[in-house]
Amino acid sequence: MKSIEIYNLYKQYPKVKRYRDIFLHPFKKDYIKAVNGIDLTVEKGTMLGLLGPNGAGKTTLIKILATLVLPTSGTVNVHNYDIVKHSRKIRKIIGFVTADERSFFWRLTGIQNLEFFATLNNLSSSETKRRVHETLEQTELTEAANMMFKDYSTGMKQRLAIARGLLCYPDILLLDEPTRSLDPFSAQKLRHFITQKIIQKLGHTAIIATHNLHEAYEMCSHVAVMQDGVIIEHGEKNNVFRNTITDTFLLTLSHSSPDINFGNIHEITEHKILNEHTRTYSIITENIEQVLHTLYTSGVSIIECKKEQMTLDDFFISIIKKNGKSS
Amino acid sequence: MIVFFFKKALAFLKKDFLNESSYKWSFVLQFFSIFINVGVFFFLSKLVQGPSTKYIAEYGGDYFSYVLIGVAFTSYLEVALNSLSKSIRNGQMVGTIEALLTTQTELPTIIISSSIYSFLFTSIRILSYILIGIIFFDMNLTGANYFGAIIILFLSIVTFSCFGILSASFIMYFKKGDPFSSFLSSLNWLLGGAYFPTEILPQWLSFLSYVLPITYSLKGMRLALLTGAGFQQLSHYIIILLIFIVTLLPFSLFSFSYAVRKAKEDGTLIQY
Fold first, then answer.
1. pTM for the model
2. Given CB atoms, is A85 within the 8 Å cutoff of chain B?
Protein backbone atom coordinates (compact mmCIF):
# COMPACT_ATOMS: atom_id res chain seq x y z
CA MET A 1 0.00 0.00 0.00
CA LYS A 2 1.28 3.45 -0.89
CA SER A 3 1.59 5.97 1.94
CA ILE A 4 2.90 8.88 -0.06
CA GLU A 5 2.66 9.52 -3.80
CA ILE A 6 4.40 12.46 -5.42
CA TYR A 7 4.02 13.21 -9.12
CA ASN A 8 5.83 15.86 -11.09
CA LEU A 9 6.34 18.10 -8.07
CA TYR A 10 7.81 21.56 -8.56
CA LYS A 11 8.44 24.24 -5.98
CA GLN A 12 9.99 27.60 -6.67
CA TYR A 13 10.47 30.48 -4.27
CA PRO A 14 10.50 34.11 -5.38
CA LYS A 15 13.93 35.68 -5.09
CA VAL A 16 14.22 38.72 -2.83
CA LYS A 17 14.88 41.68 -5.11
CA ARG A 18 17.63 44.20 -4.55
CA TYR A 19 16.62 47.89 -4.48
CA ARG A 20 18.30 48.34 -7.87
CA ASP A 21 16.16 45.62 -9.45
CA ILE A 22 12.98 46.99 -7.88
CA PHE A 23 13.58 50.32 -9.66
CA LEU A 24 14.95 48.94 -12.94
CA HIS A 25 12.66 45.91 -13.37
CA PRO A 26 9.69 46.43 -11.04
CA PHE A 27 7.56 43.71 -12.65
CA LYS A 28 10.22 41.12 -13.34
CA LYS A 29 10.08 38.11 -11.07
CA ASP A 30 12.99 35.80 -10.43
CA TYR A 31 12.63 32.44 -8.77
CA ILE A 32 14.78 29.90 -7.00
CA LYS A 33 13.94 26.35 -7.97
CA ALA A 34 13.93 24.28 -4.78
CA VAL A 35 12.15 21.20 -6.10
CA ASN A 36 12.45 20.60 -9.78
CA GLY A 37 10.20 17.75 -10.93
CA ILE A 38 10.05 15.00 -8.36
CA ASP A 39 8.26 11.68 -8.74
CA LEU A 40 8.38 9.50 -5.65
CA THR A 41 6.25 6.87 -3.97
CA VAL A 42 6.73 5.65 -0.44
CA GLU A 43 5.22 2.33 0.58
CA LYS A 44 3.61 1.85 3.98
CA GLY A 45 6.09 0.86 6.68
CA THR A 46 9.08 2.14 4.73
CA MET A 47 11.75 4.24 6.35
CA LEU A 48 13.01 6.48 3.60
CA GLY A 49 16.21 8.45 3.96
CA LEU A 50 16.11 11.67 2.00
CA LEU A 51 19.76 12.25 1.40
CA GLY A 52 21.37 15.28 -0.11
CA PRO A 53 23.69 18.22 0.46
CA ASN A 54 22.46 21.58 1.76
CA GLY A 55 20.16 23.24 -0.75
CA ALA A 56 19.21 19.96 -2.44
CA GLY A 57 15.52 20.51 -1.66
CA LYS A 58 15.09 17.99 1.18
CA THR A 59 13.64 20.41 3.70
CA THR A 60 11.32 21.95 1.11
CA LEU A 61 9.99 18.49 0.28
CA ILE A 62 9.50 17.68 3.97
CA LYS A 63 7.75 21.02 4.51
CA ILE A 64 5.43 20.41 1.58
CA LEU A 65 4.52 17.06 3.12
CA ALA A 66 4.00 18.75 6.49
CA THR A 67 1.60 21.24 4.78
CA LEU A 68 3.81 24.19 5.73
CA VAL A 69 4.63 25.11 2.15
CA LEU A 70 2.35 24.96 -0.89
CA PRO A 71 3.73 23.30 -4.03
CA THR A 72 4.04 25.41 -7.18
CA SER A 73 2.74 22.55 -9.32
CA GLY A 74 2.38 18.79 -9.26
CA THR A 75 0.46 16.36 -7.10
CA VAL A 76 1.22 15.12 -3.62
CA ASN A 77 -1.09 12.55 -2.05
CA VAL A 78 -0.76 11.29 1.49
CA HIS A 79 -2.98 8.26 2.12
CA ASN A 80 -4.84 9.34 -1.02
CA TYR A 81 -5.56 12.84 0.35
CA ASP A 82 -4.39 15.75 -1.77
CA ILE A 83 -1.93 17.87 0.18
CA VAL A 84 -3.43 21.19 -0.95
CA LYS A 85 -7.12 20.37 -0.70
CA HIS A 86 -7.03 18.25 2.46
CA SER A 87 -4.21 19.75 4.47
CA ARG A 88 -6.14 19.44 7.73
CA LYS A 89 -6.73 15.71 7.26
CA ILE A 90 -3.09 15.24 6.35
CA ARG A 91 -1.98 16.93 9.56
CA LYS A 92 -3.84 14.17 11.42
CA ILE A 93 -1.81 11.53 9.61
CA ILE A 94 1.58 13.16 9.84
CA GLY A 95 3.85 13.70 12.83
CA PHE A 96 6.44 16.36 12.08
CA VAL A 97 9.68 16.21 14.05
CA THR A 98 11.79 19.27 13.53
CA ALA A 99 15.33 19.55 14.82
CA ASP A 100 14.72 23.19 15.64
CA GLU A 101 14.76 23.41 19.42
CA ARG A 102 13.20 26.87 19.17
CA SER A 103 9.92 25.21 18.28
CA PHE A 104 9.24 24.61 21.99
CA PHE A 105 8.35 27.00 24.80
CA TRP A 106 11.55 27.17 26.76
CA ARG A 107 10.14 28.29 30.09
CA LEU A 108 7.53 25.56 30.21
CA THR A 109 8.32 22.06 31.42
CA GLY A 110 8.46 19.10 29.04
CA ILE A 111 5.07 17.88 30.20
CA GLN A 112 3.49 21.34 29.89
CA ASN A 113 4.83 21.64 26.35
CA LEU A 114 3.42 18.26 25.37
CA GLU A 115 0.04 18.95 27.01
CA PHE A 116 -0.21 22.20 25.09
CA PHE A 117 0.53 20.59 21.72
CA ALA A 118 -1.80 17.66 22.52
CA THR A 119 -4.68 20.10 23.06
CA LEU A 120 -3.91 21.79 19.74
CA ASN A 121 -4.12 18.33 18.16
CA ASN A 122 -7.70 17.92 19.41
CA LEU A 123 -6.95 15.24 22.00
CA SER A 124 -9.47 15.10 24.84
CA SER A 125 -8.27 15.83 28.39
CA SER A 126 -8.08 12.16 29.35
CA GLU A 127 -6.39 11.25 26.04
CA THR A 128 -3.94 14.12 26.51
CA LYS A 129 -2.93 12.82 29.93
CA ARG A 130 -2.54 9.27 28.66
CA ARG A 131 -0.68 10.14 25.46
CA VAL A 132 1.66 12.59 27.15
CA HIS A 133 2.49 9.94 29.73
CA GLU A 134 2.97 7.27 27.02
CA THR A 135 5.11 9.38 24.71
CA LEU A 136 7.28 10.57 27.59
CA GLU A 137 7.81 6.95 28.49
CA GLN A 138 8.53 5.96 24.88
CA THR A 139 11.11 8.71 24.59
CA GLU A 140 12.56 7.92 28.03
CA LEU A 141 11.82 11.38 29.38
CA THR A 142 9.47 10.50 32.23
CA GLU A 143 11.98 11.54 34.86
CA ALA A 144 12.68 14.84 33.13
CA ALA A 145 9.00 15.60 32.51
CA ASN A 146 8.82 18.36 35.12
CA MET A 147 12.07 20.05 34.13
CA MET A 148 11.87 23.30 32.20
CA PHE A 149 12.63 22.76 28.50
CA LYS A 150 15.49 25.26 28.72
CA ASP A 151 17.29 22.92 31.13
CA TYR A 152 17.11 19.93 28.77
CA SER A 153 20.25 18.69 27.03
CA THR A 154 20.23 18.82 23.21
CA GLY A 155 19.55 15.08 23.05
CA MET A 156 16.60 15.41 25.43
CA LYS A 157 15.23 18.29 23.35
CA GLN A 158 15.37 16.12 20.26
CA ARG A 159 13.61 13.28 22.08
CA LEU A 160 10.89 15.65 23.26
CA ALA A 161 10.43 16.72 19.62
CA ILE A 162 9.92 13.05 18.76
CA ALA A 163 7.45 12.68 21.66
CA ARG A 164 5.52 15.65 20.27
CA GLY A 165 5.53 14.11 16.80
CA LEU A 166 4.08 10.88 18.20
CA LEU A 167 1.31 12.50 20.28
CA CYS A 168 -1.64 11.81 18.03
CA TYR A 169 -0.70 8.37 16.70
CA PRO A 170 0.60 9.54 13.32
CA ASP A 171 0.87 6.99 10.51
CA ILE A 172 3.75 8.87 8.97
CA LEU A 173 6.68 10.50 10.73
CA LEU A 174 8.64 13.26 9.05
CA LEU A 175 12.02 13.84 10.65
CA ASP A 176 14.04 16.83 9.52
CA GLU A 177 17.69 16.24 10.43
CA PRO A 178 16.94 14.74 13.85
CA THR A 179 20.57 14.42 14.90
CA ARG A 180 21.64 17.90 13.86
CA SER A 181 23.82 19.57 16.49
CA LEU A 182 24.28 16.37 18.48
CA ASP A 183 27.70 15.02 19.35
CA PRO A 184 28.59 11.69 17.64
CA PHE A 185 27.79 9.60 20.72
CA SER A 186 24.38 11.21 21.31
CA ALA A 187 23.61 11.08 17.58
CA GLN A 188 24.35 7.37 17.51
CA LYS A 189 22.16 6.83 20.58
CA LEU A 190 19.29 8.81 19.08
CA ARG A 191 19.53 6.98 15.74
CA HIS A 192 19.34 3.68 17.56
CA PHE A 193 16.46 4.95 19.64
CA ILE A 194 14.46 6.15 16.60
CA THR A 195 14.93 2.94 14.62
CA GLN A 196 14.58 0.38 17.43
CA LYS A 197 12.09 1.95 19.77
CA ILE A 198 9.99 4.12 17.51
CA ILE A 199 9.96 3.00 13.90
CA GLN A 200 10.38 -0.76 14.23
CA LYS A 201 8.26 -1.05 17.37
CA LEU A 202 5.41 1.19 16.27
CA GLY A 203 5.62 0.37 12.56
CA HIS A 204 5.49 3.90 11.21
CA THR A 205 6.21 5.01 7.71
CA ALA A 206 8.98 7.56 8.10
CA ILE A 207 10.90 10.01 5.99
CA ILE A 208 14.12 11.28 7.43
CA ALA A 209 15.88 14.19 5.77
CA THR A 210 19.59 14.13 6.41
CA HIS A 211 22.91 15.03 4.87
CA ASN A 212 24.59 12.34 6.92
CA LEU A 213 25.33 9.34 4.73
CA HIS A 214 25.89 6.97 7.62
CA GLU A 215 22.71 8.05 9.31
CA ALA A 216 20.73 7.17 6.20
CA TYR A 217 22.55 3.87 5.86
CA GLU A 218 22.04 2.93 9.48
CA MET A 219 18.43 3.95 9.88
CA CYS A 220 16.63 3.56 6.59
CA SER A 221 15.27 0.74 4.49
CA HIS A 222 15.13 2.94 1.38
CA VAL A 223 17.09 5.93 0.19
CA ALA A 224 16.31 8.80 -2.16
CA VAL A 225 19.26 10.96 -3.09
CA MET A 226 18.45 14.56 -3.97
CA GLN A 227 20.52 17.11 -5.73
CA ASP A 228 19.48 20.49 -7.16
CA GLY A 229 15.82 19.75 -6.50
CA VAL A 230 15.68 16.39 -8.27
CA ILE A 231 15.97 12.81 -7.10
CA ILE A 232 19.01 11.34 -8.77
CA GLU A 233 18.87 7.92 -7.14
CA HIS A 234 16.09 6.09 -5.37
CA GLY A 235 15.56 2.57 -4.19
CA GLU A 236 16.20 0.02 -1.53
CA LYS A 237 19.12 1.06 0.62
CA ASN A 238 21.33 -1.90 -0.15
CA ASN A 239 20.84 -1.54 -3.90
CA VAL A 240 21.63 2.17 -3.90
CA PHE A 241 24.70 1.80 -1.72
CA ARG A 242 25.92 -1.39 -3.41
CA ASN A 243 25.71 0.22 -6.80
CA THR A 244 27.39 3.36 -5.65
CA ILE A 245 29.77 2.85 -2.81
CA THR A 246 33.23 1.58 -3.55
CA ASP A 247 35.55 1.26 -0.59
CA THR A 248 38.41 3.66 -0.05
CA PHE A 249 41.57 2.51 1.72
CA LEU A 250 44.60 4.30 3.13
CA LEU A 251 47.87 2.47 2.57
CA THR A 252 51.13 3.38 4.29
CA LEU A 253 54.26 1.79 2.86
CA SER A 254 57.62 1.31 4.51
CA HIS A 255 60.43 3.64 3.36
CA SER A 256 62.48 0.76 2.00
CA SER A 257 59.60 -0.43 -0.14
CA PRO A 258 59.77 0.02 -3.94
CA ASP A 259 57.28 2.42 -5.56
CA ILE A 260 53.92 1.00 -6.55
CA ASN A 261 53.15 0.73 -10.20
CA PHE A 262 49.42 1.46 -9.96
CA GLY A 263 48.94 1.00 -13.69
CA ASN A 264 49.55 -2.71 -13.32
CA ILE A 265 46.99 -3.29 -10.56
CA HIS A 266 43.65 -3.49 -12.32
CA GLU A 267 41.64 -3.88 -9.13
CA ILE A 268 42.40 -0.27 -8.24
CA THR A 269 39.89 2.10 -9.79
CA GLU A 270 41.41 5.33 -8.51
CA HIS A 271 44.47 6.33 -6.49
CA LYS A 272 45.97 9.43 -4.89
CA ILE A 273 49.36 10.06 -3.28
CA LEU A 274 48.45 11.74 0.00
CA ASN A 275 51.91 12.23 1.46
CA GLU A 276 55.12 11.39 -0.37
CA HIS A 277 57.25 11.78 2.73
CA THR A 278 55.25 9.24 4.81
CA ARG A 279 54.45 7.26 1.64
CA THR A 280 50.71 7.29 2.26
CA TYR A 281 48.33 6.51 -0.59
CA SER A 282 44.56 6.60 -0.95
CA ILE A 283 43.12 3.91 -3.20
CA ILE A 284 39.59 3.04 -4.26
CA THR A 285 38.98 -0.64 -4.85
CA GLU A 286 36.29 -3.26 -4.50
CA ASN A 287 38.90 -5.99 -3.96
CA ILE A 288 41.40 -5.00 -1.31
CA GLU A 289 42.54 -8.60 -0.73
CA GLN A 290 43.63 -8.90 -4.36
CA VAL A 291 45.39 -5.53 -4.23
CA LEU A 292 47.26 -6.42 -1.07
CA HIS A 293 48.25 -9.77 -2.54
CA THR A 294 49.55 -8.14 -5.74
CA LEU A 295 51.54 -5.57 -3.74
CA TYR A 296 52.98 -8.21 -1.44
CA THR A 297 54.12 -10.45 -4.31
CA SER A 298 55.78 -7.47 -6.03
CA GLY A 299 57.86 -6.82 -2.90
CA VAL A 300 56.01 -3.83 -1.49
CA SER A 301 56.08 -3.74 2.29
CA ILE A 302 52.88 -2.34 3.82
CA ILE A 303 52.96 -0.83 7.31
CA GLU A 304 49.27 -0.01 7.57
CA CYS A 305 46.08 -0.56 5.58
CA LYS A 306 43.07 1.36 6.87
CA LYS A 307 39.53 1.43 5.48
CA GLU A 308 38.21 4.97 5.17
CA GLN A 309 34.60 5.92 5.73
CA MET A 310 33.14 7.30 2.55
CA THR A 311 32.18 10.93 2.86
CA LEU A 312 28.99 12.37 1.49
CA ASP A 313 31.10 14.18 -1.12
CA ASP A 314 32.60 10.89 -2.33
CA PHE A 315 29.15 9.33 -2.36
CA PHE A 316 27.73 12.13 -4.49
CA ILE A 317 30.66 12.07 -6.83
CA SER A 318 30.13 8.32 -7.27
CA ILE A 319 26.41 8.74 -7.89
CA ILE A 320 26.88 11.60 -10.29
CA LYS A 321 29.54 9.60 -12.16
CA LYS A 322 27.20 6.64 -12.24
CA ASN A 323 24.30 8.71 -13.51
CA GLY A 324 26.49 10.56 -15.97
CA LYS A 325 25.36 13.91 -14.57
CA SER A 326 27.28 16.90 -13.40
CA SER A 327 26.14 19.37 -10.85
CA MET B 1 -16.02 22.86 17.16
CA ILE B 2 -16.72 25.65 19.66
CA VAL B 3 -15.69 23.36 22.52
CA PHE B 4 -12.38 22.71 20.78
CA PHE B 5 -11.90 26.44 20.26
CA PHE B 6 -12.43 27.18 23.96
CA LYS B 7 -10.18 24.32 24.99
CA LYS B 8 -7.45 25.60 22.70
CA ALA B 9 -7.95 29.20 23.84
CA LEU B 10 -7.63 28.00 27.42
CA ALA B 11 -4.46 26.06 26.55
CA PHE B 12 -2.93 29.22 25.07
CA LEU B 13 -3.99 31.21 28.13
CA LYS B 14 -2.39 28.68 30.46
CA LYS B 15 0.77 28.52 28.35
CA ASP B 16 1.12 32.31 28.24
CA PHE B 17 0.43 32.67 31.96
CA LEU B 18 3.04 30.02 32.82
CA ASN B 19 5.51 31.67 30.48
CA GLU B 20 4.93 35.22 31.75
CA SER B 21 4.80 34.30 35.43
CA SER B 22 8.09 32.44 35.10
CA TYR B 23 9.69 35.89 34.71
CA LYS B 24 8.82 36.66 38.34
CA TRP B 25 10.33 40.13 38.71
CA SER B 26 8.75 41.49 35.53
CA PHE B 27 5.40 39.91 36.43
CA VAL B 28 5.27 41.61 39.85
CA LEU B 29 6.56 44.91 38.48
CA GLN B 30 3.68 45.12 36.00
CA PHE B 31 1.17 45.25 38.87
CA PHE B 32 3.23 47.77 40.76
CA SER B 33 3.27 50.12 37.76
CA ILE B 34 -0.56 50.28 37.84
CA PHE B 35 -0.41 52.12 41.22
CA ILE B 36 2.23 54.52 39.93
CA ASN B 37 0.22 55.36 36.79
CA VAL B 38 -2.99 56.05 38.71
CA GLY B 39 -1.05 58.31 41.09
CA VAL B 40 0.42 60.25 38.16
CA PHE B 41 -3.06 60.82 36.67
CA PHE B 42 -4.41 61.95 40.04
CA PHE B 43 -1.75 64.59 40.59
CA LEU B 44 -1.95 65.67 36.95
CA SER B 45 -5.66 66.21 37.41
CA LYS B 46 -4.89 68.75 40.18
CA LEU B 47 -3.43 70.97 37.47
CA VAL B 48 -6.48 70.72 35.27
CA GLN B 49 -9.09 72.60 37.26
CA GLY B 50 -11.24 75.70 36.86
CA PRO B 51 -12.09 77.09 33.41
CA SER B 52 -10.19 74.41 31.50
CA THR B 53 -12.66 71.78 32.67
CA LYS B 54 -15.40 73.33 30.52
CA TYR B 55 -14.25 71.08 27.68
CA ILE B 56 -14.99 67.99 29.74
CA ALA B 57 -18.17 69.27 31.33
CA GLU B 58 -20.31 66.85 29.32
CA TYR B 59 -18.44 63.96 31.00
CA GLY B 60 -18.95 65.26 34.52
CA GLY B 61 -16.09 67.76 34.61
CA ASP B 62 -13.63 65.64 36.65
CA TYR B 63 -10.34 65.42 34.76
CA PHE B 64 -9.02 62.50 36.86
CA SER B 65 -11.97 60.26 35.88
CA TYR B 66 -11.76 61.56 32.32
CA VAL B 67 -8.07 60.77 31.82
CA LEU B 68 -8.17 57.48 33.74
CA ILE B 69 -10.91 56.08 31.51
CA GLY B 70 -9.27 57.55 28.40
CA VAL B 71 -5.85 56.06 29.06
CA ALA B 72 -7.18 52.75 30.37
CA PHE B 73 -9.40 52.08 27.37
CA THR B 74 -6.94 53.38 24.80
CA SER B 75 -4.44 50.84 26.20
CA TYR B 76 -7.12 48.20 25.87
CA LEU B 77 -7.79 49.04 22.25
CA GLU B 78 -4.06 49.06 21.61
CA VAL B 79 -4.05 45.41 22.63
CA ALA B 80 -6.78 44.69 20.06
CA LEU B 81 -4.75 46.56 17.48
CA ASN B 82 -1.34 45.05 18.22
CA SER B 83 -1.74 41.67 19.84
CA LEU B 84 -2.53 39.68 16.68
CA SER B 85 0.45 40.95 14.73
CA LYS B 86 2.65 40.65 17.82
CA SER B 87 1.72 37.02 18.26
CA ILE B 88 2.64 36.28 14.63
CA ARG B 89 5.88 38.22 14.83
CA ASN B 90 6.73 36.59 18.13
CA GLY B 91 6.01 33.11 16.74
CA GLN B 92 8.20 33.84 13.73
CA MET B 93 11.05 35.24 15.84
CA VAL B 94 10.94 32.67 18.64
CA GLY B 95 10.43 29.86 16.15
CA THR B 96 7.28 28.25 17.52
CA ILE B 97 4.95 29.10 14.64
CA GLU B 98 6.11 26.19 12.47
CA ALA B 99 5.34 23.66 15.20
CA LEU B 100 1.97 25.31 15.85
CA LEU B 101 1.06 25.18 12.18
CA THR B 102 1.67 21.46 11.92
CA THR B 103 -0.97 20.80 14.59
CA GLN B 104 -4.65 20.29 13.81
CA THR B 105 -5.35 23.92 14.66
CA GLU B 106 -5.93 26.50 11.95
CA LEU B 107 -3.91 29.70 11.87
CA PRO B 108 -6.81 32.06 12.76
CA THR B 109 -7.48 30.06 15.94
CA ILE B 110 -3.78 30.18 16.80
CA ILE B 111 -3.60 33.93 16.30
CA ILE B 112 -6.80 34.75 18.17
CA SER B 113 -5.93 32.43 21.05
CA SER B 114 -2.44 33.91 21.28
CA SER B 115 -3.93 37.33 22.05
CA ILE B 116 -6.29 36.21 24.82
CA TYR B 117 -3.69 36.51 27.57
CA SER B 118 -2.96 40.12 26.59
CA PHE B 119 -6.67 40.94 26.66
CA LEU B 120 -7.17 39.29 30.01
CA PHE B 121 -4.14 40.92 31.56
CA THR B 122 -5.15 44.34 30.22
CA SER B 123 -8.69 43.81 31.54
CA ILE B 124 -7.24 43.15 34.99
CA ARG B 125 -5.10 46.27 34.63
CA ILE B 126 -8.09 48.42 33.65
CA LEU B 127 -10.19 47.06 36.49
CA SER B 128 -7.33 47.78 38.86
CA TYR B 129 -7.06 51.35 37.48
CA ILE B 130 -10.74 51.94 38.12
CA LEU B 131 -10.81 50.23 41.51
CA ILE B 132 -7.78 52.19 42.73
CA GLY B 133 -9.42 55.35 41.35
CA ILE B 134 -12.64 54.63 43.26
CA ILE B 135 -11.05 53.47 46.52
CA PHE B 136 -8.15 55.90 46.86
CA PHE B 137 -8.95 58.90 44.66
CA ASP B 138 -12.73 59.41 44.98
CA MET B 139 -13.60 58.48 41.42
CA ASN B 140 -17.38 58.35 41.17
CA LEU B 141 -19.03 55.69 39.01
CA THR B 142 -22.26 55.29 40.97
CA GLY B 143 -24.60 56.26 38.15
CA ALA B 144 -22.69 54.42 35.38
CA ASN B 145 -24.48 52.56 32.58
CA TYR B 146 -22.32 49.44 32.77
CA PHE B 147 -24.31 47.51 30.19
CA GLY B 148 -23.95 50.36 27.68
CA ALA B 149 -20.22 50.51 28.48
CA ILE B 150 -19.86 46.78 27.83
CA ILE B 151 -21.59 47.12 24.43
CA ILE B 152 -19.33 50.03 23.46
CA LEU B 153 -16.30 48.07 24.67
CA PHE B 154 -17.27 44.96 22.69
CA LEU B 155 -17.87 46.93 19.47
CA SER B 156 -14.63 48.84 19.97
CA ILE B 157 -12.66 45.64 20.45
CA VAL B 158 -14.12 44.16 17.24
CA THR B 159 -13.41 47.40 15.32
CA PHE B 160 -9.83 47.54 16.54
CA SER B 161 -9.36 43.84 15.96
CA CYS B 162 -10.19 44.50 12.28
CA PHE B 163 -7.22 46.86 12.17
CA GLY B 164 -5.33 44.22 14.16
CA ILE B 165 -6.09 41.61 11.49
CA LEU B 166 -4.92 44.01 8.77
CA SER B 167 -1.77 44.59 10.76
CA ALA B 168 -1.32 40.80 11.17
CA SER B 169 -1.76 40.32 7.41
CA PHE B 170 0.95 42.88 6.81
CA ILE B 171 3.34 41.21 9.25
CA MET B 172 2.56 37.80 7.76
CA TYR B 173 3.61 38.93 4.33
CA PHE B 174 6.09 41.80 4.78
CA LYS B 175 7.43 40.71 8.21
CA LYS B 176 8.22 44.25 9.41
CA GLY B 177 7.18 47.86 9.01
CA ASP B 178 3.47 47.37 9.58
CA PRO B 179 1.85 50.81 9.09
CA PHE B 180 -1.44 49.96 10.82
CA SER B 181 -0.32 49.40 14.34
CA SER B 182 2.45 51.99 14.55
CA PHE B 183 0.76 54.82 12.63
CA LEU B 184 -2.76 54.23 13.88
CA SER B 185 -1.51 53.82 17.41
CA SER B 186 0.22 57.22 17.35
CA LEU B 187 -2.87 58.83 15.82
CA ASN B 188 -5.06 57.25 18.49
CA TRP B 189 -3.05 58.80 21.29
CA LEU B 190 -2.83 62.19 19.56
CA LEU B 191 -6.30 62.54 18.12
CA GLY B 192 -8.43 59.96 19.94
CA GLY B 193 -9.01 61.98 23.07
CA ALA B 194 -7.29 59.82 25.65
CA TYR B 195 -5.65 62.71 27.52
CA PHE B 196 -7.67 65.69 26.28
CA PRO B 197 -10.99 66.24 24.49
CA THR B 198 -10.76 66.45 20.72
CA GLU B 199 -12.63 69.78 20.87
CA ILE B 200 -9.46 71.59 21.91
CA LEU B 201 -7.67 70.52 18.72
CA PRO B 202 -7.44 72.96 15.78
CA GLN B 203 -10.39 72.50 13.47
CA TRP B 204 -8.51 70.59 10.74
CA LEU B 205 -7.04 68.14 13.26
CA SER B 206 -10.33 67.86 15.05
CA PHE B 207 -11.87 66.87 11.71
CA LEU B 208 -9.30 64.06 11.36
CA SER B 209 -10.23 62.73 14.78
CA TYR B 210 -13.73 61.98 13.48
CA VAL B 211 -12.28 59.48 11.00
CA LEU B 212 -10.80 57.43 13.84
CA PRO B 213 -12.98 54.84 15.58
CA ILE B 214 -11.26 55.49 18.91
CA THR B 215 -12.91 58.92 19.11
CA TYR B 216 -16.35 57.27 19.18
CA SER B 217 -15.21 54.47 21.47
CA LEU B 218 -13.87 56.84 24.11
CA LYS B 219 -16.75 59.30 23.89
CA GLY B 220 -19.31 56.53 24.20
CA MET B 221 -17.39 54.84 27.01
CA ARG B 222 -17.01 58.06 29.02
CA LEU B 223 -20.66 58.99 28.57
CA ALA B 224 -21.75 55.52 29.70
CA LEU B 225 -19.41 55.29 32.69
CA LEU B 226 -19.15 58.90 33.89
CA THR B 227 -22.63 60.27 33.18
CA GLY B 228 -24.69 57.08 33.00
CA ALA B 229 -25.90 58.00 29.48
CA GLY B 230 -28.75 55.82 28.23
CA PHE B 231 -28.92 53.84 24.99
CA GLN B 232 -30.57 56.69 23.11
CA GLN B 233 -27.55 58.91 23.77
CA LEU B 234 -25.13 56.09 23.05
CA SER B 235 -26.87 54.91 19.86
CA HIS B 236 -24.95 57.46 17.74
CA TYR B 237 -21.61 55.94 18.82
CA ILE B 238 -22.90 52.37 18.60
CA ILE B 239 -24.07 52.89 14.98
CA ILE B 240 -20.80 54.47 13.89
CA LEU B 241 -18.79 51.62 15.42
CA LEU B 242 -21.07 49.11 13.66
CA ILE B 243 -20.44 50.88 10.33
CA PHE B 244 -16.68 50.56 10.93
CA ILE B 245 -17.12 46.85 11.63
CA VAL B 246 -19.29 46.13 8.58
CA THR B 247 -16.80 47.93 6.35
CA LEU B 248 -13.57 46.64 7.85
CA LEU B 249 -14.27 43.05 8.88
CA PRO B 250 -14.72 41.41 5.44
CA PHE B 251 -11.77 43.36 4.04
CA SER B 252 -9.48 42.44 6.92
CA LEU B 253 -10.44 38.75 6.82
CA PHE B 254 -9.86 38.63 3.06
CA SER B 255 -6.46 40.32 3.48
CA PHE B 256 -5.45 37.85 6.14
CA SER B 257 -6.36 34.74 4.18
CA TYR B 258 -4.59 36.20 1.12
CA ALA B 259 -1.46 36.96 3.16
CA VAL B 260 -1.39 33.44 4.65
CA ARG B 261 -1.76 31.85 1.22
CA LYS B 262 0.96 34.04 -0.28
CA ALA B 263 3.29 33.29 2.63
CA LYS B 264 2.69 29.55 2.17
CA GLU B 265 3.35 29.84 -1.56
CA ASP B 266 6.52 31.85 -1.04
CA GLY B 267 7.66 29.65 1.84
CA THR B 268 7.97 32.68 4.12
CA LEU B 269 5.38 31.71 6.72
CA ILE B 270 7.99 31.19 9.42
CA GLN B 271 10.57 33.68 8.23
CA TYR B 272 11.18 36.97 9.98
1. 0.81
2. no
